[in-house]
Design goal:
- The protein contains ten helices and three strands, in the order H-H-H-H-E-E-H-H-H-H-E-H-H.
- It is mainly alpha-helical.
- It has a three-stranded antiparallel sheet.
- It is flat.
Length: 191
């Protein structure tokens, strides 16, 4: 059936998705493949992958050019901010949380109820970066004791950039994505 061929095409196109800002070009190609199988008519799609990828990797080449430093793998972390990560919650969901500056750190500490592990050496970015692994572990424990809805509501109320990591079907119900019409341009929901 056409869906098996579509799945095979999706596997091939997944290789191209690595260099895309949000997989938009791959989604466009998949939509066209589905159209080919549905009505027998395709269309030409041109994708400038170098330009698409450059917006994601500008810091690393510039840091090498100006400072001679090679970028190291840091996973979900940011080289300038901590804590920042994705944490498993009590209901087996995942929540992304980022602390961008000292004010956000103070907001996080208040939202968490001023835990005993918060010390003065964590007040500045250098201290938080040095303690990144420990902070991830401690925040991981906090998130593991709360369900995703509660954790997001509590931290968002404190003004922190936090959100659930959404599985594909849940994206259609997310109020932030819906408000920006990110789930689709036609207004129709396809699940």
């Amino acid at each position: 059936p056409w869906c098996a061929s579509l799945l095979q095409s999706a596997r091939l196109l997944a290789l191209a998705a690595r260099s895309e800002a949000a997989g938009g070009d791959t989604a466009t190609a998949l939509r066209d493949i589905a159209r080919i199988h549905r009505i027998g008519e395709g269309q030409m799609i041109e994708v400038a992958q170098l330009e698409t990828a450059c917006c994601l990797t500008a810091d690393q080449p510039m840091d090498f050019q100006w400072n001679g430093r090679l970028a190291e793998r840091i996973g979900n972390h940011d080289p300038r901010t901590a804590p920042q990560g994705v944490y498993r919650t009590a209901d087996d969901e995942w929540v992304a949380c980022s602390v961008r500056d000292d004010a956000a750190w103070r907001d996080l500490v208040e939202a968490l109820g001023r835990p005993l592990w918060v010390t003065d050496d964590l007040a500045g970015p250098a201290g938080r970066l040095a303690a990144r692994a420990a902070l991830d572990g401690l925040l991981g424990e906090w998130f593991a004791a709360h369900d995703a809805t509660e954790a997001v509501a509590r931290l968002r109320a404190a003004g922190l950039p936090v959100g659930r990591v959404l599985r594909a079907p849940a994206m259609y119900d997310d109020p932030q994505l819906a408000a920006r019409n990110m789930a689709g341009h036609s207004g129709a929901v396809h699940r």
